[in-house]
Each structure stands twice: as structure tokens, then as C-alpha cells.
Amino acid sequence: MTHSITTARRRTVLRKVLPTIAAAGLGVSGLVGCSGGGDTGGHDAKAGKVAQGADKNAMSRGTGAAKGKGSALKLKTTSGEFGTKAAAAADFPTWGTRWVVHETADTSSRSVGMINKDAAGQDRITADYQVDTGKKACEGSTCSTYMAHITGPVNGFLSVLAVDIPEDSLPGVPVQNGPQQPPQPPQPGGTRAEALQRASTWLTANGGGRVPYSQAKLWKDGYRQDCSGYVSMALGLKAPGTNTVGLTGSGITKPIAVNDLKPGDLLIDAAGNNNTRHVVMFEKWNNDAHTSYTSYEQRGDFGTDHTTRTYGLEPGSEYKPYRPVKFTD
Question: Which end of the chain, N or C, is less packed with Cβ atoms under 10 Å?
Fold first, then answer.
């Protein structure tokens, strides 16, 4: 958007008198590890390896901030277990007081924190991607259709109206979805049926075809395109998803007996390395004898699959059954 001197002054006034929300009725979207190296047919990456081995580099340039401010935009790249890729993190100044940071890209979702809660413009946000919702929101004479996923000072979703720049989107920050593909971020909690429904969406999400497998890439909804990223998406965990080992954590799942498997439960092989670890989501038993089951999975060299499996049913199998603790049924 363009701003006149009058607009800039109006924003200066607005930041002092508007206590809360940046936008209403926006629907928006939400990035790291499981299975395999790159696009190969393996399974998962070791927990903590990124933090230990990542080589991070940064370069910066000016954004031409509003009112002549020198806003430093930092574009970062990382290299590690998921390969070299753009981290797409950028820092921006904020304006106004009491801007709500939402849990999901839906502005009706609960608040996970505030920025500028004590003094106007005291915070800077770090954004890693943004979404053009196609739905204009305005505050005074300032409008935007964008919402940004931010990682600091609070992790969540924030209207771009809260950012002190003259544009209606964040310069240098990638847009993951357009107005023709409004993102549908998973909600916290939920039922088994909802998890299975989300899992099924990747069977046709790629122009009617399955989502391709990759440990390094993110799908349009912000989740990693590997087995654990896929299951994280289905369970509504925070994007880009945890890794396979992380899915066995007590805050996400609990161990159960094989014969107790119900729709939406998981079978996880957390042993070995990123070429052997794997996770599938159980849908149903195929027979009363429990000799096979149907499951959803994201597998190497193929992509999203819905097929018969016997993982975890053989004696001594590395696959162990787990139940997500989030289910309400």
C-alpha cells in the first residue's frame, strides 16, 4: 500500500488509541523433520541434530521503512540434516499497542500473546512466511490482506497491519498461499475422525494428486513433506512439525498395546537414523484376526499413501503403537 503524510500521521495517532486487534475475519496459514534425506526413500532425522550441526548465515538489506526508519531485513539460510534451504526469517519494527498474536491463522483463534503490550512500537517481530488471504482488513486508512507467521517475540500469527512498513505485505518474506488457496490450519484438540480427514487431504492436495515426499521442502500448509511432518499436520501440531522421535514424547503420545489400536493412533519406528525411522497413522483393522490394517503415511520416493500395512505386527518389530493424547474421543 502507499502512505501519504496524512496516513502516516493517522497511524501515529491510531497506535496510541487502538488497544487491540489488527484485523477481523481473516483466514490464513502456517516449517522441520522426519524420514529420509532429501527426496530419498528413508524415514527420519535425529532429534537435536539441527541445533548441533546447523551452519547459519545471514545477510541484510534496508526495507525502506515508513517514516524514514532504517528497518533491517535479515534473510537467513541454514544447512543441516534437511539440506541447505532458505530459512526466510526477517525482522521488522512494529507499531501500536496491544496487538494480538493468534494461535492459528484464524483471527478468531485464541491469543498466544501480545506485542507492544507496554509501550508503543517497543517490539520487533521475526517473520518466516506470510499468507495473502484475499480478504482485506483495515484499521483506519491502513489496509492489508496479509497475515504473517512470526517466531518472535511470540510464536503465532499476526496481521501485517501491526508492522511499521509502508507496504501491505512484508518485503522479502515468502508468501506460501494465495487467495485462490486459502490455508486451513489445524485446530488444537480434536477427534480421531478429524485427524484422519486431515491426513486424507494430502492424497489429492497436489492438483488432484498426492503430495510428493521431501525432508527439505514444506507443503503449502507449512508442514514438512516427510512422514513426521505429515503426521504432525494430521494431528494439528505446530508447523512445520516435529520429527519421528519427537512424536513419541509424552506431551504428544503415550504407548499402547497393538490390539488396542484405534483410528488415528500411530505406529512409530523411532530407532536408527533418518533413513530408517518412520511413522504411519492407523485407520482400521482389515480383519478380526488383526493380521493387517489400513493406514495413512508419507513415504519416500512415493509421497502420500493410503494402503494396507503390517508394520508393528511382526514379532520383534521396531514399530511400536502410540496414542495421541490430544484426542477428545
Answer: C
Read off the pLDDT band of 210 (50, 70, 90). very high
DSSP 248: G
In sequence order, the β-bridge partners of residue 262 are: none
Q: Where are the beta strands (DSSP E) in 67-173?
A: 72-78, 85-86, 90-93, 99-102, 111-115, 124-139, 142-152, 156-159
| Least confident stretch, 134-148, 199-213, 286-300 | 134-148
- Region of 207 please: left (phi>0), alpha (psi -120 to 50) or beta: left
Q: Give the cell for residue 198.
A: 486431515
Report angle CA 196, 182, 150 to the nearest 5 degrees.
95
Q: How far are the Cα atoms of 4, 149, 228 from residue 32, in angstroms, in the given order?
A: 41, 15, 9
pLDDT tens-digit readout, 65-118:
333 333 344 444 333 322 223 344 678 898 877 888 988 777 777 888 899 888
User: What is the spatial order of strands in the sheet that 124-139 belongs to?
Assistant: 90-93, 124-139, 142-152, 156-159, 99-102, 111-115
Number of C-beta neighbours around residue 101 at 10 A: 20
**H-type helices in 202-254, by residue range?**
227-235
d(C-alpha 158, C-alpha 297), whole Å: 32
Half-sphere exposure of 92 (CA within 13 A, CB side): 32
The H-assigned helical ranges of the chain are 5-17, 49-53, 192-201, 227-235
